[in-house]
Amino acid sequence: MMKEQIIKTAKLMFLKLGFKSVTMDDIASEIGISKKTIYKYFSNKDILIENTIELAFSEVQEIIIKIENLNLNAIEENFEMKRMFREMFKGSDTSPLYQLKKHYLEIYEKVLTVQSEILIVCFRKNIIKGIKEGLYRENVVIDEYVKFYQILIFNINENTASGIEAEELEVKALEYHIRAMATLAGIIELEKHLKNPII
Q1: What predicted TM-score, i.e. pTM, was given to this entire model?
Q2: Does residue 46 belong to any structural domain of this protein?
Q3: pLDDT tens, 108-118?
Q4: Which of 10, 35, 44, 164 stands the most exposed, by the fewest C-beta atoms within 10 Å?
Protein backbone atom coordinates (compact mmCIF):
# COMPACT_ATOMS: atom_id res chain seq x y z
CA MET A 1 0.00 0.00 0.00
CA MET A 2 2.80 2.42 0.86
CA LYS A 3 4.40 1.91 -2.56
CA GLU A 4 1.09 2.76 -4.30
CA GLN A 5 0.65 5.81 -2.06
CA ILE A 6 4.13 7.08 -2.98
CA ILE A 7 3.44 6.61 -6.72
CA LYS A 8 0.03 8.34 -6.55
CA THR A 9 1.36 11.30 -4.55
CA ALA A 10 4.45 11.62 -6.76
CA LYS A 11 2.30 11.56 -9.91
CA LEU A 12 0.13 14.45 -8.68
CA MET A 13 3.15 16.46 -7.58
CA PHE A 14 5.14 15.83 -10.77
CA LEU A 15 2.21 16.87 -12.96
CA LYS A 16 1.45 19.96 -10.89
CA LEU A 17 4.95 21.22 -10.15
CA GLY A 18 7.15 19.52 -12.75
CA PHE A 19 9.29 16.38 -12.82
CA LYS A 20 12.50 18.34 -12.32
CA SER A 21 11.47 20.62 -9.48
CA VAL A 22 9.87 18.01 -7.19
CA THR A 23 12.44 16.28 -4.97
CA MET A 24 12.25 13.03 -3.05
CA ASP A 25 12.23 15.18 0.12
CA ASP A 26 9.15 17.04 -1.18
CA ILE A 27 7.30 13.77 -1.81
CA ALA A 28 8.28 12.35 1.60
CA SER A 29 7.15 15.55 3.30
CA GLU A 30 3.80 15.54 1.43
CA ILE A 31 3.05 11.96 2.54
CA GLY A 32 4.50 12.42 6.04
CA ILE A 33 7.18 9.72 5.78
CA SER A 34 10.96 9.72 5.71
CA LYS A 35 12.91 9.92 2.46
CA LYS A 36 14.49 6.61 3.48
CA THR A 37 11.06 4.95 3.16
CA ILE A 38 10.78 6.13 -0.45
CA TYR A 39 14.25 4.76 -1.25
CA LYS A 40 13.16 1.41 0.17
CA TYR A 41 10.79 1.09 -2.80
CA PHE A 42 12.54 3.24 -5.43
CA SER A 43 16.32 3.32 -5.67
CA ASN A 44 16.29 6.65 -7.53
CA LYS A 45 14.00 9.39 -8.79
CA ASP A 46 14.07 8.16 -12.41
CA ILE A 47 12.54 4.82 -11.37
CA LEU A 48 9.84 6.63 -9.40
CA ILE A 49 9.09 8.85 -12.43
CA GLU A 50 8.76 5.75 -14.64
CA ASN A 51 6.32 4.23 -12.14
CA THR A 52 4.21 7.40 -12.03
CA ILE A 53 4.08 7.45 -15.84
CA GLU A 54 2.95 3.80 -15.88
CA LEU A 55 0.15 4.78 -13.50
CA ALA A 56 -0.81 7.74 -15.72
CA PHE A 57 -0.93 5.48 -18.80
CA SER A 58 -3.08 2.98 -16.94
CA GLU A 59 -5.49 5.83 -16.03
CA VAL A 60 -5.51 7.01 -19.66
CA GLN A 61 -6.47 3.52 -20.83
CA GLU A 62 -9.30 3.45 -18.27
CA ILE A 63 -10.57 6.84 -19.50
CA ILE A 64 -10.54 5.64 -23.12
CA ILE A 65 -12.51 2.48 -22.24
CA LYS A 66 -14.98 4.48 -20.13
CA ILE A 67 -15.63 6.91 -22.99
CA GLU A 68 -15.95 4.14 -25.59
CA ASN A 69 -18.61 2.53 -23.38
CA LEU A 70 -20.72 5.72 -23.37
CA ASN A 71 -21.77 5.02 -27.00
CA LEU A 72 -21.28 8.63 -28.10
CA ASN A 73 -20.91 9.50 -31.77
CA ALA A 74 -17.33 9.86 -33.06
CA ILE A 75 -17.20 13.67 -32.72
CA GLU A 76 -18.82 13.70 -29.26
CA GLU A 77 -16.29 11.02 -28.29
CA ASN A 78 -13.36 13.23 -29.36
CA PHE A 79 -14.61 16.16 -27.30
CA GLU A 80 -15.40 14.00 -24.28
CA MET A 81 -11.89 12.51 -24.50
CA LYS A 82 -10.41 16.02 -24.56
CA ARG A 83 -12.57 17.05 -21.61
CA MET A 84 -11.57 14.06 -19.49
CA PHE A 85 -7.87 14.41 -20.26
CA ARG A 86 -8.07 18.08 -19.38
CA GLU A 87 -9.57 17.07 -16.02
CA MET A 88 -6.82 14.50 -15.48
CA PHE A 89 -4.02 17.01 -16.19
CA LYS A 90 -5.76 20.14 -14.88
CA GLY A 91 -3.10 20.82 -12.26
CA SER A 92 -0.23 20.80 -14.75
CA ASP A 93 1.54 24.14 -14.97
CA THR A 94 3.76 22.83 -17.76
CA SER A 95 3.20 20.16 -20.40
CA PRO A 96 4.43 16.79 -18.98
CA LEU A 97 5.94 15.74 -22.34
CA TYR A 98 7.80 19.05 -22.60
CA GLN A 99 9.24 18.54 -19.11
CA LEU A 100 10.37 14.99 -19.82
CA LYS A 101 11.97 15.93 -23.14
CA LYS A 102 13.90 18.71 -21.46
CA HIS A 103 15.06 16.92 -18.29
CA TYR A 104 14.65 13.14 -18.67
CA LEU A 105 15.33 12.28 -22.30
CA GLU A 106 15.63 8.51 -21.83
CA ILE A 107 12.28 8.29 -20.00
CA TYR A 108 10.75 10.65 -22.57
CA GLU A 109 11.73 8.32 -25.43
CA LYS A 110 10.07 5.35 -23.67
CA VAL A 111 6.95 7.44 -23.08
CA LEU A 112 6.77 8.36 -26.77
CA THR A 113 6.68 4.71 -27.79
CA VAL A 114 3.90 3.74 -25.38
CA GLN A 115 1.89 6.90 -25.98
CA SER A 116 2.14 6.43 -29.75
CA GLU A 117 0.73 2.91 -29.50
CA ILE A 118 -2.21 4.05 -27.35
CA LEU A 119 -3.05 7.06 -29.54
CA ILE A 120 -2.78 5.21 -32.87
CA VAL A 121 -5.34 2.62 -31.73
CA CYS A 122 -7.63 5.29 -30.27
CA PHE A 123 -7.51 7.59 -33.35
CA ARG A 124 -8.03 4.68 -35.78
CA LYS A 125 -11.10 3.42 -33.93
CA ASN A 126 -12.57 6.92 -33.83
CA ILE A 127 -12.11 7.51 -37.57
CA ILE A 128 -13.61 4.11 -38.48
CA LYS A 129 -16.57 4.85 -36.19
CA GLY A 130 -17.07 8.34 -37.70
CA ILE A 131 -17.06 6.96 -41.25
CA LYS A 132 -19.70 4.35 -40.29
CA GLU A 133 -21.84 7.09 -38.72
CA GLY A 134 -21.58 9.31 -41.81
CA LEU A 135 -19.80 12.04 -39.85
CA TYR A 136 -16.46 11.52 -41.62
CA ARG A 137 -15.98 11.09 -45.38
CA GLU A 138 -15.79 7.53 -46.72
CA ASN A 139 -12.66 8.32 -48.74
CA VAL A 140 -10.56 9.32 -45.70
CA VAL A 141 -7.19 7.54 -45.85
CA ILE A 142 -7.29 6.36 -42.23
CA ASP A 143 -3.58 5.67 -41.62
CA GLU A 144 -2.54 9.04 -43.04
CA TYR A 145 -5.07 10.96 -40.95
CA VAL A 146 -4.03 9.06 -37.81
CA LYS A 147 -0.41 9.97 -38.53
CA PHE A 148 -1.17 13.65 -39.24
CA TYR A 149 -3.17 14.06 -36.03
CA GLN A 150 -0.60 12.19 -33.96
CA ILE A 151 2.21 14.45 -35.28
CA LEU A 152 0.13 17.54 -34.46
CA ILE A 153 -0.59 16.43 -30.88
CA PHE A 154 3.01 15.37 -30.19
CA ASN A 155 4.47 18.59 -31.59
CA ILE A 156 2.16 20.68 -29.42
CA ASN A 157 3.06 18.78 -26.24
CA GLU A 158 6.78 18.47 -26.95
CA ASN A 159 7.32 22.12 -27.80
CA THR A 160 4.84 24.05 -25.64
CA ALA A 161 6.03 24.76 -22.12
CA SER A 162 2.74 26.13 -20.78
CA GLY A 163 0.15 23.50 -19.86
CA ILE A 164 -2.72 25.94 -20.55
CA GLU A 165 -1.35 26.95 -23.96
CA ALA A 166 -0.85 23.27 -24.88
CA GLU A 167 -4.50 22.56 -23.99
CA GLU A 168 -5.75 25.47 -26.11
CA LEU A 169 -3.66 24.37 -29.09
CA GLU A 170 -4.89 20.78 -28.71
CA VAL A 171 -8.50 21.96 -29.02
CA LYS A 172 -7.55 23.87 -32.20
CA ALA A 173 -5.78 20.74 -33.51
CA LEU A 174 -8.90 18.66 -32.77
CA GLU A 175 -11.07 21.11 -34.74
CA TYR A 176 -8.56 21.07 -37.62
CA HIS A 177 -8.46 17.25 -37.58
CA ILE A 178 -12.26 16.86 -37.60
CA ARG A 179 -12.84 19.54 -40.28
CA ALA A 180 -10.38 17.78 -42.58
CA MET A 181 -12.45 14.56 -42.45
CA ALA A 182 -16.00 15.75 -41.82
CA THR A 183 -19.05 15.37 -44.01
CA LEU A 184 -21.72 18.09 -43.88
CA ALA A 185 -23.37 16.21 -40.99
CA GLY A 186 -19.96 16.07 -39.29
CA ILE A 187 -19.45 19.84 -39.67
CA ILE A 188 -22.87 20.50 -38.11
CA GLU A 189 -21.98 18.20 -35.18
CA LEU A 190 -18.55 19.85 -34.82
CA GLU A 191 -20.02 23.37 -34.77
CA LYS A 192 -22.41 22.29 -32.02
CA HIS A 193 -19.47 21.27 -29.81
CA LEU A 194 -17.39 24.35 -30.63
CA LYS A 195 -20.20 26.48 -29.15
CA ASN A 196 -19.49 24.81 -25.79
CA PRO A 197 -15.72 25.30 -25.45
CA ILE A 198 -13.71 22.76 -23.45
CA ILE A 199 -11.37 25.42 -22.06
Answers
A1: 0.84
A2: no
A3: 888 888 888 88
A4: 44
